Amino acid sequence: MRRGNCEILKKITSITAMTAMLLAGCVRDRNDVTYLGEDKRAAYRAHATDIAYPTVNEPLPSEVTETAPPLTILDTDEIPIREIALADAIQIGLQNSQVIRAAGAFLTAGNSLLSNPNITPTAFDPAIQASGVLFGNRGVEAALSAFDAQLNSSMVWGRNSLTQNSNLGITPFSVITQETGTFQAALSKTMANGGQITLYENINYLGTNSPIVGYPSSYAGATGVSYSLPLLAGAGTEFTRVAGPISQGFQGVSGVSQGVLIARINEDISIATFETQLHGLVRDIENAYWDLYHAYRTYHTAVTARESALMTWRIADLQFEAEVRSKAEVAQAQDQYFMTDAASINARSNIYTTEIRLRRLIGLSANDGSTLRPLDEPVTAQLIPDWYTSLTEALTRRVELRTQKWNIKSLELQLDAARSLVKPQLNFVSGYQLNGFGDDLIGYNQPTTGNYFQNMTAGQTPGWNLGLNFNWAIGFRAAMAQVRNYELRVAKSQRVLAEQEKEISHELAVAFQEVSRTYAAAETNMNRLIAARENVKFLEPNIRGGVMLLDELLRAQLRQAEAEVAYYDSLVQYNKSLNDLQFRKGTILAHNSVYMSEGGWEQTAYRDAKHQADARAHAIDTSRLMKTVPEPFASPSPVGGVYFTHPEATSSNDPVPTEPAQAPPAQDPIKLEDPLVPLFGP
Question: pTM for the complete prediction?
């Protein structure tokens, strides 16, 4: 070891030892630390996580801030009655349906509106899907952005100085300085067939003091165009519109579902999902409406029974004083009065609770100072729907089937696109460019060479290329696995569609049975109510005369109240079964005159559409010469027909018409439309 190296090592060792001693002398006990000013130990936190609140201050809805205390049985003041028709309730509910509410989720621990609001259906969902930009959730605009023209440009300046270790033509160890500038611009566009065309301009500037160059400053570059087109894998419009341009895909990530068609189908599925939720909302509103009607009828029956029990108690008490009745009969009458009084209290409270449920569904506040009361009376006419007509409507108009068919169509299109990838990648590539060189960019300084743009536009130094790029993943293991995956998914979706159609037929069958059962029950309970009234009417004079036991009248009055409640319960159930029949057929929106349409567009969009329509209207008719390629993937009306092979359905293979069947008039001796309602008016 040299003596100089030893001296350096000794110095490093001495410095290290001194640094260690100084650092050790700076350490002291933390308890001896003296703080300046006030004690800051109150800011000490012994934990890292705490409950915090977001800095969000959204205004509360008026339905919350303006609501009065809920109505209870303790309210003795007269409450204004607001009569509401079923059509008005549905209209109000749809106007307030930006967030779809479900009747079954109310007062449950798993209410998605509170526990998982991200999955709560809203009117924003179709627009959210249409504006999606992420993989697997792209809207049409995001899918079309793959075909937007892209402009890329850059301009970079630089300077570099180097000492040259050479004596070839230059002074040894001289400093060579280079000033550089690079300008690059490219405009590229992806075509519907997967091809890509690019216009580009590249200019490089070099200024140097090197003696070996011709000009101390010069410009060199090229202006050209290039075009590439897939010929095998990912080729053609059919692939691009389903999977998107193959040049922009990521293997194993994007798949074959990033095209415009899949984005459009996803929008249709989102709209169908929203329509399904509207079907459920309208059904829930009508059911809640009839439940409120039933609550009012039950309360009226309970009040009538209470008044009858009170009158009977008073008569029994007078007859007890006249020694006609015993103390036990008076106590029995008293017992029945308190029982009916408790029933009336429960029935009144049930009105308030049921009204809250209806208010929630139609988007009203819990209490706006009035009480809702149904204005419409239930349907009492018998409906005998036709099975094959109703089944045809259900198989044609159920939104769930339309949604599943969209899923099948999407998977079939993706399967075709996946099969295109079971081929080698063979791309046609080509390019043409004009090269330029000059001492100046635009000015004219050298008579021999000219400037850069003059040389380039002269066309004396062109360049071109033409050829093919080939890539073959031998075995196509990943591509074959993708095809097999989509084949299985298509088979599963088709099997699910068949099961959905069977499920709908079973649901419709149960709906038919419920319509028949509830009507028969309402008819029977009406006869029961008439008999119970006749029984009470016969017993009341005998009880007043003290001829019969009081127990018979009390029991008859109780049976009359039970019969009346049972009648209105079965009548409401009959109307709810009719509502459910429309729901199972998928016609509940049309039955209630509810139709869906998109919102308004900008005025410029209407002007552009009118301009295009006028251009088509005055153009030469070429419909006979034109052919749609690829085939359309959507239709404005249901595709195919519904055919039945049962001998009672039809004797031919003609589809069953979808017009609603006309119900024949009822032939029963006692009809539900008999004038019973006025006897129980408010």
Answer: 0.82
